[in-house]
Amino acid sequence: MMSQRQSVTSAESTGQLRPSGMTDYPYPSTAAASAVMRANRKTDTKPELAVRRLLHARGYRYRVNYRIKTDVVIVRPDIVFTKRRLAVFIDGCFWHNCPQHGNRPNVNQGYWSAKLDRNKQRDILVSEGLEESGWQVLRIWEHVLPVAACEMIIAALANTHQRYR
Hints:
Helix content is 35%, strand content 16%. By secondary structure, the protein is an alpha+beta fold. It starts with 7 loop residues before the first strand and ends in a 7-residue tail after the last helix.
């Protein structure tokens, strides 16, 4: 007897098999696209690691993937300075619709357009929710050089009007 997780149904549009209940999103168009999507990391991306190394080398200490729960949102920013109430997000150009480098795939446009728009709306709601709860939010695009991103974070920390180091 097959469990629900093991059962498969035929996808009408592609003729491919997919697990039951997984009809909300399309299959990747190629095996290469599938491999690229699987390789995307949620945490510890190269831009995050580069910025964190620079901050640490300059003597700053922070939390990584620290859970912040407010009345409005529950979120895990990339870098968090808890005492200073600074939440830093290093946003990927593709996933967060960078106006300079963001692009939308030509395949499965209906899915990706809605997905990327939802990401952008979620980013706005998260930032607003944190700010309403007394947090300062800093969003940095992944294309910003790590040294410049580090300087932006240090400047934001200086604006919190508290001694940190």
